[in-house]
Amino acid sequence: MDKNNVLKGGEFIIKDVAAEEVFIPENFDEEQQMIAQTCDDFLEAEIFPNLDRIDAQEAGLMRELIQKAGELGLLGISIPEEYDGFGQSFVTSMLASEAMGAGHSFSVAYSAHTGIGSMPLVYYGNEEQKQRYLPKLATGEWAAAYCLTEPNAGSDANSGKTQAILSEDGSHYILNGQKMWITNGGFADLLTVFAKIGNDRVYSAFLVESNWDGVVINPEEKKMGIKGSSTVQLFFNDVKVPVENLIAKQGQGFRIALNILHMGRIKLGAAVLGSAKRTITQSINYARERKQFGTEIANFAAIKFKLAQQTIRTWVTESAVYRISDNIDKTKEELMAEGMDRENAAIEAIAQYAIEDAAMKVFGSETLDYVVDEGVQIFGGMGFSAEMPVDRAYRDSRINRIFEGTNEINRLLISETLIKKGPKVGINFKEEYEKIVSQADSFVAAHVDETDPLKIMRSFVKKAKTLGLYTIGAFLEKNPKGFVEEQEIMSALSDIIMAIYTTESAVLRTEKIMALKSFEETEYHRAMSETYLYDSSFKMKKSAYDIVGSSLKGEELCNALRIIDSLTIYKPINVKENHRFIANKLIEENKYCF
Ligand SMILES: Cc1cc2nc3c(=O)[nH]c(=O)nc-3n(C[C@H](O)[C@H](O)[C@H](O)COP(=O)(O)OP(=O)(O)OC[C@H]3O[C@@H](n4cnc5c(N)ncnc54)[C@H](O)[C@@H]3O)c2cc1C
């Protein structure tokens, strides 16, 4: 493999990639499609008919469903074959997460078990620990949970008080503390618990069996959504944890916790896709059934606009999520070729893309919230009825902006990581900024006379990258030392960074599809991409204005606005026709069909 083809984390801000290099969902092979189909069949047979029973937390039901998923091999997709799993690629595990993502509370239980619950052991456990526990987790004989959050340690996760003291004979740790909001906690058999050994300032990670003496499980929390998902507080009262159950080394727990969260974030980006596509299909179905003013509401342009926007944002999320997932697989292969062991390579590859992982969490969760909100609106009064599916979708979506790190924390992480990491991958923000300022007069709205849609889109993405470098540089000029306090600006920078990644992903996917199909066959893809780019141009301009407006004045500000204007202009498009065109296809197919 040519090493230079895979961009390193964050490099997209400055480097380009050829369309043929990126993975697009149209590239899924037969085996991957079969796995997704098995997930779909499982949801149809076991989950969708039982959603009310699941949300009522019928005793033992969720546990039984986890076990059934295990019997079908759906829990072992990312667990290596030697521990009774299937050792599939990261992209394949993301496809399964997407499919299962339509399963409401089950999806959350599934993600917690297969992701944050099992993966600390897969990536960091020793051979003996893996032999002991992984086959049970792969088959669903046991269920897993991840215990990081405490009542006084949420976003500030490392400030927890749970403590482990080594026993006098050195045979075990005595664990004391309290964990909160633990998904699957009501029935999980194996808990990954983060606690500080003695007076350590950072966590270590422990494998704790929930039936050990001293583990106390509180009653289920009453929640706004994902009501069927088990969420409890757990208490650890003098729990004896054998020293063999320490994961990795003393003091490595916080690093494990963070790296597992990077993985959880990108997986959330996949899970929201399943939910979004299902809600879009339900919205289309309803719009075709419901009649007002003598016609189906699907015939009203305002409804078509919503269906098209729901679809465009979902399609763009999908383009970006699988592009980065494939980069993770390729980076893992590269690291293994350099001699790194499989598990380290896998988690290092995910951590290397911390910026993109967080971006997919934020962008995906906000896409889903938009989709379900407009879903409720399309259903009108019926959307407010607890008997309609969009009611559950609406409530269940909201948690995605909170867990796996809130979207505020992830936004701060995106820009902060890029600013810190940039120089390490050869980006000199100061030099880039000065270059852009010196070339400002050459920035003209070059694509205004251009008619080739692909050229227009490519040119916009190029300018978007210049805008990203310019705004980071402009910000650093005024805040050379501290930026942590400037949260509004850091968040606005992150919005620009996410827009760059997502617009580029949409264009690359369109370009790759165009190479596979006739020009006419790609009309919908082009319409979705150009509409998304057009919309993004205004959002990016607003974010950039916010950034320079908060730190520049007078002539400096005027010059900055001129640069931003020329970098964010998009040739006006017929947005009205684009939305109608996309929606008509959805209505004709009566489902999400891209
Ligand atoms: C249903 C559910 C399931 C969960 N499952 C798990 C699980 O399985 N395991 C687990 O360990 N945890 C789990 N969590 C916990 C979850 O990860 C935390 O709730 C989340 O990280 C936020 O922490 P917090 O609730 O303490 O909010 P807080 O940290 O108190 O945040 C409150 C608000 O302040 C903002 N804020 C906080 N710090 C900053 C800052 N530095 N700058 C700007 N804004 C800030 C936040 O963005 C948020 O808007 C779950 C939570 C829920 C609700």
CATH topology of the largest domain: Butyryl-CoA Dehydrogenase, subunit A, domain 3
Can you identify the CATH class of the largest domain? Mainly Alpha
Q: What bound compounds does this protein have?
A: flavin-adenine dinucleotide
Query: What is the first-to-last residue Cα distance?
Result: 31 Å
Give the ordered list of helices and strands: HHHHHHHEEEEEEEEHEEHHHHHHHHHHH
Output the number of helix runs.
Answer: 19
Average residue pLDDT: 95
* Reported CATH architecture of the largest domain: Up-down Bundle
The CATH H-level superfamily of the largest domain is: Butyryl-CoA Dehydrogenase, subunit A, domain 3
> What is the number of E strands?
10
Rg, alpha carbons: 24 Å
Strand content: 5-15%
Whole-number total of structural domains: 4
Low-confidence stretches: none
Q: Biggest sheet, in brief?
A: 8 strands, mixed
Structural class: alpha+beta
Molecular structure report:
With 594 residues, the protein is α+β, with helices and mostly antiparallel strands. It folds into four domains: 3-7 and 24-142, Butyryl-Coa Dehydrogenase, subunit A, domain 1, CATH 1.10.540; 146-251, Butyryl-CoA Dehydrogenase, subunit A, domain 2 (Beta Barrel); 254-408, Butyryl-CoA Dehydrogenase, subunit A, domain 3 (Up-down Bundle), CATH 1.20.140; 428-589, Butyryl-CoA Dehydrogenase, subunit A, domain 3 (Up-down Bundle), CATH 1.20.140.10. 57% of the residues lie in helices and 9% in strands. The protein contains 19 helices and ten strands. Strands 1, 2, 3, 4, 5, 6, 7 and 8 form an eight-stranded mixed sheet that branches. A two-stranded antiparallel sheet has the order 9-10. A hairpin with a 5-residue loop joins strand 2 (163-166) and strand 3 (172-183). It is globular and about 80 Å long. It starts with 29 loop residues before the first helix and ends in a 5-residue tail after the last helix. Bound molecules: flavin-adenine dinucleotide.
